[in-house]
Design goal:
alpha+beta; globular; 14 strands; binds coenzyme A; single chain; seven-stranded mixed sheet; three-stranded mixed sheet; 556 residues
C-alpha cells in the first residue's frame, strides 16, 4: 500500500484545477500573532514575546530565510502545508484515538423489537454504503461548492475518496496513513463485521456482483450465530486499537510475528469499513449515552472491544437502537462524513427495507471468523488497553445539549454571522465560568485550495474579551447600547478572522510551516517556537467546530 502522508495520489475531482494554498506574508503573520496572544499573556510575557518576534522578523533574519524555503516548497508541491499539518494534527499524536481524536455521529434512535430487526437495519445501511461506494468508484460524486461566507467557489473533493480506502497504521513514533491502490482488476471487496468482540470477513462482492440487501442480511444472520458460539470465542483483540498509538504499535509488532495474525490484520486493514453489531449498552438511552457509546463503546465491559479504531469508517448498530458512526479523523474532515451519512440516511428513508427475514437457504459461502494466535505479551497488552479505555470512559464528562429557542435564521435577521455569534457566546460562557480568556480553536475549511484541509480561526479575539468583560464585570458604564456595540465589534472581528482563514491567510498553518521547515533544515529551533507564549497560544483549552447543517435527527 502506498504511503499517503507524503503526497496523496491524484484522482478525478481531487481539485487539480483549484488554486494552490497561498503562503501568507511573513510580517502579516507575525503582526496577527502578536495581536492574538497579547490579551492571553501577562505584560512581562508579552514584552518578551514582542522582542522575540521582532528578532525573528528582522530583514535578513531567520524568519525570512524560512519563508524563502516555504516559497520554494509551495512551488514544488500541490499544498505546501499538507504533510506538516497531517503529521502535526494527527499522525504524530500519541494519544488514544477514542475520545481524544475520533469523531462520531449519532443516528436517529431506532426501535428494534426483534434481533432480526437490528440485522435488517445493518443490512439496509450496508447496502446504502455499497451504493455510495459505487458512486465514489465511478467518480460520480457531485463537486461541493462553498456555502456561507464567500459562497459559491468549488471545493477540493479528494477527502471523499479516502472514506473507504484508507487505514491509519500505528507506528512507534509516528503513524502512517495508507491507502489501497486501485488496480485494473479490482480486489474482492469485503467489510469486517464486529460482533461480541469477534471479527468476521463479509465479502460484499461475489462473482463480480455486489451482494444485495437480502444477501447481506443472510450473511449478517450467519455472523450473529457464529459469534454466539462460545467455544470459538477469542479474546477482545480490538481493545488494542483503543490504546495509545505507541502502545498499539508495540502490540501490533508482537502480533505480526505470527502468520495467522498477519493474515487477519491484512484483512482488517484492506476492508471497506467495519460494521459493529453492538450489544444493548444498559442504561436508559439518551442523546448523551448514545454519543458516549459512539465515542468509546462504554469500555471493555460493554462494546469497547467491538471496535477497530484505525479504520476510518465504523458503523455501529446497537441491539438497543443506539446507532451511528465513529471515524478515524486523519483521512477526512467531519463535513465529508456528514455528507456521506446524509446520503445514507436519505437512502434508508427513501427506500424503506422490505425485508422481513433472511433468506432461509443461501448458496453464499459463510463469512469467515478472523483467527488470532495469542502470545503472553498480547494478553497483558489487552488487559492494559482495557484499563486505559476504562480511564478514558470515566474521565469523559459528556452532555449533549440541544438548543431550541432560536436558530441561525434569527441571527441572520440581526445581520450577524451565526457562526461568529455562537463563537462569541462560547467566549462569554467560558469567561463566566472561569473569569479568564483562553486560547481557542475553531476549525475552518480551506478546501477552496488544492488538497485543502483546515486552518484555525483564533476565536479568543481582543474584541470578544472586551465584550465578555462588559457583560460580566457589572461596570455601571456598560449600558445595553454599549454592550450591543461591543457584541457587534466582537462579531465583526470574528467574521474578519473567518474570512482570513478560509482564504488561506491565517497564521496557524503558516507558523507550523516555518517551525517544521526549520526542523527539516536541521536548524536549531527558532526562539519564537520555544517561547512560552507560543506554547500558551497552542494549548487550546476551548476547541470548537461547526457544520453548516446536519441531517435531521442526527448529531455529531
Ligand atoms: N448577516 C446576515 N447573514 C449572514 C451574515 C450577516 N452579517 N453573515 C453570514 N450570514 C449568513 C451566511 O450567508 C450563511 O447563509 P446561508 O444559511 O444561506 O448559507 C449563514 O449566515 C451562515 O454563515 P456563517 O455563520 O457566517 O458561517 P459559515 O456557514 O460561513 O461557516 C465556518 C463558517 C468557519 C464554520 C465555515 O467556513 C467552515 O469552514 N466550515 C467547515 C468547518 C470544518 O470543516 N470543520 C472541521 C470539522 S472536523
Amino acid at each position: 500500500m502506498p504511503i499517503l502522508d507524503q503526497e496523496p495520489s491524484k484522482t478525478e475531482g481531487d481539485g487539480d484545477d483549484l488554486p494552490k494554498l497561498p503562503l501568507p506574508n511573513l510580517q502579516d503573520t507575525l503582526d496577527i500573532y502578536l495581536r492574538c496572544v497579547k490579551h492571553l499573556l501577562t505584560k512581562e510575557q508579552f514584552s518578551r514575546t514582542q522582542n522575540i518576534v521582532k528578532q525573528f522578523g528582522v530583514p535578513g533574519g531567520e524568519g525570512e530565510l524560512l519563508q524563502r524555503k516555504l516559497v520554494e516548497r509551495r512551488e514544488k508541491t500541490a499544498n505546501w502545508v499538507y504533510d506538516f499539518w497531517l503529521n502535526d494534527m494527527y499522525l504524530n499524536n500519541r494519544l488514544a484515538l477514542p475520545v481524544n481524536s475520533s469523531p462520531a455521529m449519532v443516528f436517529p434512535q431506532q426501535n428494534f423489537r426483534l434481533p432480526i430487526d437490528y440485522l435488517r437495519f445493518a443490512a439496509h445501511l450496508l447496502s446504502g454504503v455499497l451504493e455510495y461506494k459505487t458512486l465514489l468508484d465511478a467518480h460520480a460524486l457531485p463537486i461541493d461548492y462553498a456555502q456561507g461566507q464567500l459562497a459559491g467557489t468549488p471545493l477540493c473533493m479528494e477527502q471523499y475518496y479516502r472514506l473507504f480506502t484508507s487505514y491509519r497504521l500505528p507506528g512507534p513514533e509516528r503513524d502512517t496513513l495508507v491507502a489501497q491502490e486501485s488496480t485494473v482488476m479490482p480486489e474482492p471487496e469485503h467489510v469486517i463485521v464486529a460482533c461480541k468482540n469477534q471479527f468476521f470477513v463479509l465479502d460484499v462482492v461475489m462473482n463480480f456482483r455486489r451482494l444485495n440487501e437480502r444477501d447481506l442480511l443472510t450473511q449478517l444472520d450467519k455472523i450473529l450465530k457464529m459469534a454466539e458460539n462460545e467455544e470459538e470465542r477469542q479474546p477482545p483483540i480490538g481493545l488494542l486499537t483503543s490504546n495509545g498509538r505507541t502502545e498499539w504499535a508495540e502490540a501490533r509488532s508482537f502480533l505480526m510475528r505470527e502468520s495467522t495474525n498477519r493474515d487477519s490484520l491484512d484483512m482488517i486493514e484492506r476492508c471497506l469499513c467495519l460494521v459493529c453489531l453492538d450489544e444493548a449498552s444498559g442504561p436508559q438511552l439518551s442523546d448523551t449515552t448514545c454519543a458516549a457509546m459512539m465515542l468509546h463503546g462504554g469500555g471493555a465491559a460493554k462494546n469497547g472491544g467491538n471496535r477497530w479504531y484505525d479504520k476510518p469508517m465504523q458503523f455501529v448498530v446497537g441491539a438497543d437502537g443506539c446507532c451511528g458512526v465513529v471515524c478515524e479523523h486523519s483521512p477526512f474532515e467531519g463535513i465529508v462524513l456528514v455528507q456521506c451519512t446524509e446520503y445514507l440516511l436519505k437512502y434508508m428513508t427513501g427506500s424503506p427495507s422490505k425485508l422481513v427475514r433472511a433468506a432461509s437457504l443461501s448458496e453464499l459461502p459463510a463469512p469467515r471468523r478472523l483467527r488470532w494466535k495469542f502470545l503472553p505479551e498480547i494478553q497483558k497488552l489487552i488487559s492494559s488497553s482495557a484499563e486505559k479505555l476504562e480511564r478514558l470512559v470515566k474521565n469523559l464528562d459528556m452532555n449533549v445539549h440541544k438548543f431550541y429557542d432560536y436558530g441561525k435564521e434569527f441571527i441572520k435577521k440581526q445581520k450577524m454571522s451565526p457562526d461568529a455569534y455562537v463563537q462569541v457566546a462560547l467566549q462569554l460562557a467560558f469567561y463566566r465560568c472561569h473569569g479568564r480568556p483562553v486560547s481557542t480553536y475553531e476549525s475552518a475549511s480551506i478546501r477552496r485550495f488544492q488538497q485543502g484541509r483546515v486552518d484555525n480561526i483564533r476565536s479568543a479575539t481582543p474584541e470578544a474579551l472586551a465584550f465578555v468583560k462588559a457583560m460580566t464585570e457589572g461596570k455601571l458604564s456598560s449600558g445595553d447600547t454599549e454592550k450591543m456595540e461591543l457584541l457587534q465589534e466582537a462579531i465583526n472581528a470574528q467574521t474578519k478572522y473567518t474570512i482570513l482563514t478560509i482564504t488561506g491567510k491565517a497564521i496557524d498553518n503558516h507558523l507550523l510551516g516555518l517551525r517544521e521547515i526549520a526542523q527539516e533544515m536541521k536548524m536549531e529551533k527558532p526562539e519564537i517556537f520555544k517561547d512560552e507564549a507560543y506554547l500558551i497560544s497552542n494549548q487550546f483549552i476551548l476547541s470548537t467546530s461547526q457544520f453548516p447543517r446536519e441531517p435531521p435527527d442526527m448529531f455529531s
